[in-house]
Amino acid sequence: MSLSLTFHGAAGTVTGSCFRLSTPAGDVLIDCGMFQGTKTIRELNYRPFPFDPAAIKAVLLTHAHIDHSGLLPKLTRLGFRGRIYATGGTVDLLEYMLPDSGYIQEGEVERLNRRNRQRGRPPVQAIYTQDDAIRSLRRLRRVEYDRWTEILPGLRARFWQAGHILGSASIEIEAVSGTAEPTRILFSGDLGPGGKSFHADADGPERPDWMVLETTYGDRERTDLDEAGRQAVLRAEVSTALAAGGVLLIPVFAVERTQELLYDLDCLFDSGQLPAVDVFLDSPLADAVTGVFRRHLDDLETDGDPFTRANFHHVRGVPDSQRLNSISGGAIVMAASGMCDAGRIRHHLKNRLWRPQDTVLLVGYQAPGTLGRLLQEGTSRVRIHGEEIAVKARVRSIDVYSGHADRTALLDWVAARHGVGHGLFLVHGEDAARASIRQALLGKGWSAERIAQPALDDLVDLAAPRPLAPADRHPRLAPAGLAGSDWHNHYAEALLTLRRTLDAAPDDAARDRILAGVMGALGTGKGTRQ
């Protein structure tokens, strides 16, 4: 087939964005992201790529978030020798984000192998190392917005402002196949909600032949707030948390969300709407990224430097992070990661979730199966680093800092493209979100035959008579494995339930009977103790 598209990620799930465009001049990837969420989904990061990395001629990156860029070091380690094209903002962010990701991989595997040795299990290898990440940076090439860049003979690309984070882009690709007219494919990347403090609204070309559209918030509508309205929401949450006498703990995403929060806190402190309490940024990556934002102040839609204040403290070393445990109240601690699945935030949650005077404020999307999603859904107990923690702290969630367009904004962006020549692929969304966008488009007169919801690893022949029907389907993970919680979540829940049941039993004899029932269900054949 002369032109085909394979969905190796962000198909039936929000993470792992990776699309392979096969052309007469060779294969290119649009994004090469890491899977996040449940352990079942994250296990895909350890498996071989479903293609030969050495055969990939180039990579085009929509933006720097790890679920779009995080497997680039693995790709280069396994033989990729082409160029990685990205905007200047994305390149500057990746110089910190990819080495940090490699450092995290090494640390997590070191801890896992320590447990594996104790359990007599074989060691595992990191997905990639910090050195792998540093080597992958040599492949990066900067591109400008709104300018065509030749990628391969007969293949060129143009990057459009996506309004999501610093450097984010939608990517328009024009491919020539034989003597036919060029085919134009538009990859939305992650689209911003519009009206953000730092960026212009998302843009794009009109009437591409094909469109690949993200649908992260395709089933949600948000209140349209201006900057003052957003700051009012934050002020209310911070004031209530401080009035409770404890610490406000904010799990943050290192890129954009952290900087927006610092910007709004700076405004609220300056205007006297909040007392100038200490704010501790406990994330070396978020600190480094904030430095990148400071270097790009001329590119951001803001006046002055909102990131430097006497009461903004940058926590770098582990001992300094640990000293934050002694703070009893009247402070804000911001720590990564935003979904609470890695990083220093887990140590802070372990130290503070059981304190009723403390508050946890979730400020972004929480993928299914993550600790952040469990807290958002109101779980009463969690397991962190193998220990059971009661959730007594107030858990709050606000959606005014989302970097994603909601349902209306997505539909408006599509409408501004004035349709597509052939068809639309809905990706980067949970099933309900994709279904909602599809239904809305049908209501606006779109034909059902022009809208597809590809599954993981689906291949479509863009030159076939019915190109929206998958030409090949060999998924690495069934759709059921991509949605909701997995057996690891259920296992943790079962352990917590067993612990609560044993604690509530009236005596040891009752506990023996409970355990005997469990062991009997497991087929061990052991009865109660006489």
UniProtKB/TrEMBL annotation:
Pfam families: Beta-Casp (PF10996), Lactamase_B (PF00753), RMMBL (PF07521). Keywords: Hydrolase, Plasmid. Signal peptide: none annotated. The keyword Hydrolase applies. It comes from the Bacteria. SMART domains: Beta-Casp, Lactamase_B. Residues 15-242 form the Metallo-beta-lactamase domain. Residues 258-375 form the Beta-Casp domain. GO terms for molecular function: hydrolase activity; RNA endonuclease activity. InterPro entries: Beta_Casp, MBL, Metallo-B-lactamas, RibonucZ/Hydroxyglut_hydro, RMMBL. This is MBL fold metallo-hydrolase. It comes from Azospirillum humicireducens.
